């Protein structure tokens, strides 16, 4: 590899493009502008599109009839670098140590994004053109939930029309093991607020005579699961598509994920739905979680009050074919039917996103697998992931296409954490993968 | 009434003497120092005694042989003022609105304490001396369970020897109705901490595979009661002394406490132990309450995490003849026997205090009733209260004397809550009561 690709990546990394922090707006915009200029210099027709937030970079080669059209997505914004004191090297000054590039954004997502850009540049230098019609779409708001991306897709639906989307923003199961993520869980959020007395009460004076909202919210949360990890909401599992037998078998071969989950989480023990393995629980089974619970006195020591209200922030991870709206309706019915005495129960609906599943044995899925095999020298791991990537669902809904998730990050790349890093070998593999992917899709 | 007593009370109220919060240690000590100086200025021999926590103020007039010795107790510390945004006036700046003094500590206990101090000052000015040997004992740790008071009583047992204790730190059943409290509930506190993963986890990546501490703490809290308001801890009711028949009858005559409880609390409905009236539930039945619950994300909106730990602050109100230590042992056994999977449950023991019951028809009980009748113009109501004043039991155990509880607070004085207040009329009545009480006991 010439040193130019790494130098380009380093240049992009030095922009402190923290999208959530308006103090960094200048750097965020500058990163988008630099990318636009870089792509233009490579011969693409490139533009920076304004949005109500950070701009979107769109670039295209010359689209010719009869060729496949591939949309390559990435994001140039990054998470905040704080806590800065935990970084061993400056957060926005890339440095290579033991074969890894350390910098905020190295893995999420600048390193993976630039692997594709530099792969394209090399192909263009060596071959003069690409085998497909390519549309590049890089946004600057992924780390704040892509609030402007779906409206942008809708407004530019024809310009962005394509046959398939490709993204490198997920993980590899192990170093050197090509990994194809063909499914993601969806999400449905709500907040339960339990209201009791009009004011916080002295628990000596009134205790025993009125309902305590913290007790009642506990009853609601406790009633979400049995001790076998099963969600007790009526009808919760009705629409769940069972795992295919090939998935269960394929995932069994991925190694001892139980030991890895224990080690990564530091939990005293595993706990989940009876009858499912650790990977099945995380990738293919729906969950109910309380992400926050609170009520009454929160400080040090004790305060003998009955708090006037209590809350529980709930989220449900969904799998095909659960519908977020249907699940939230069932959750509401489940919570209200308890008819808890002496309190009022309110449910506030939050954000939702559908689960995603594509067939890895479809024609494009097989093309992705071939490209990964050529790049890494062995058939790829076929996995789902437990998190949610709402933009994948947006591509499905607005553009009507599947997304190929070909991740280049390792579990210890510290995405979102101090000392984020990306192996130089993965950067190089990503450049190679880009060429094989476009050839396989062509 | 001259304005001096109110001015003195306002000065004491301005010290933000929040005993549970070490950030307020300076103000707490300053409140004690101010009281010592005030009492010294009135001619008492007064001293500030150091303890491992906040200091104790002790003051005496000249004790003469052959007179009754009365110990007057009060506390100069207050509850935290949070949530500050719910106060209509600044929490530590007293202001009189519609005949009530609004300030943290106005009713609990600075207003009631200063009514006695100012009553004494007036008697001394008008009569030159008091009819009894008086010992004043004001502490700064009542709101955190008086951890150092009992050791202090033991260490100063001879200096504090007396015939009876008098305290105004309880309630009146209605404005203008003198009220003699002959019983109090005890208390036993503990904090449950449920620990899961070593770090907060992404609920998409790991949700479903590890136990969520917020879910598990909810199961523990939910398991404390059934939906008939009965506490489910094994053996919880074993030692409970039933109400006497005269009490049930006397309390029935106190009016419609259910309507009053609904109106004072603003609760959507009453809820408590089946088979008992509102007053019986609050004054003579034991309870289990969660005073605070917390875990995971506490901010606005949502954050899809599994929090590493969760807590519940529990308190149990006790009645004769429940033993706090016995109850906490039973609670611990109850919590641990759930054997919740995937988490560690820790129970941290907090402060305790035994329930109190004296005979209101004893000689000193009758003296107290006479003083109340002279002050308010009618025979007093005879009640118990639901709160706990652990020091009453300490006076019984260490000094061997009963305590006369002659409260001056009204049900809507908002003790422990935002907008705490105290009627100026009650402050004045307390000054009068002080004189009648010492005369009746003399």
Uncertain segments of chain A are: none
**Number of separate strands of chain A:** 18
Name of the CATH homologous superfamily of the largest domain in chain A? Zn peptidases
Could you tell me the radius of gyration of chain A in angstroms? Answer: 24 Å
Oligomer: homodimer
Mean pLDDT of chain A: 96
Specify the overall morphology of chain A. Answer: globular
Class of the largest domain in chain A, according to the CATH hierarchy? Answer: Alpha Beta
Major sheet size, sense and barrel closure of chain A: 9 strands, mixed
| Elements of chain A, N to C (H/E) | HHEEEEEHEHEEEEHHHHEEEHEEHEHEEH
Helical proportion of chain A, percent range: 25-40%
Q: State the helix count of chain A.
A: 12
Biggest interchain interface, per-side counts: A-B, 87 and 99 residues
The CATH topology of the largest domain in chain A turns out to be Aminopeptidase
- Structural class category of chain A: alpha+beta
Domain Peptidase M20 dimerisation (chains A, B): 182-341
Protein name (chains A, B): Dipeptidase
InterPro entries (chains A, B): Cyt/Met_Dipeptidase, Peptidase_M20, Peptidase_M20_dimer
Organism (chains A, B): Phragmitibacter flavus
What does this structure look like?
Two copies of one chain form a homodimer. Helices cover 32% and strands 22% of the residues of chain A. In chain A, strand 4 (95-97) and strand 5 (100-102) form a beta hairpin. In chain A, helix 3 crosses helix 12, helix 4 packs parallel to helix 11 (390-399) and helix 10 (363-376) packs antiparallel against helix 12. Chain A has 442 residues and is an alpha+beta fold. Chain A has twelve helices and 18 strands. In chain A, strands 1, 2, 3, 6, 7, 8, 15, 16 and 17 form a nine-stranded mixed β-sheet that branches. A four-stranded antiparallel β-sheet of chain A has the order 11-13-9-14, with helices on one face. The first copy, chain A, has a three-stranded antiparallel β-sheet with strand order 4-5-18. Chain A has helices spanning 4-14, 25-41, 110-127, 149-155, 213-222, 245-252, 257-265, 278-283, 324-337, 363-376, 390-399, 424-441, and strands spanning 45-49, 56-60, 69-75, 95-97, 100-102, 133-139, 164-167, 179-184, 186-195, 201-202, 287-296, 305-306, 309-318, 344-353, 356-357, 381-385, 403-406, 421-423. Chain A has two domains: 4-184 and 356-441, Zn peptidases (Aminopeptidase), CATH 3.40.630; 186-240 and 286-353, Alpha-Beta Plaits. Chain A starts with a helix and ends with a helix. The interface between A and B is large, with 87 and 99 residues.
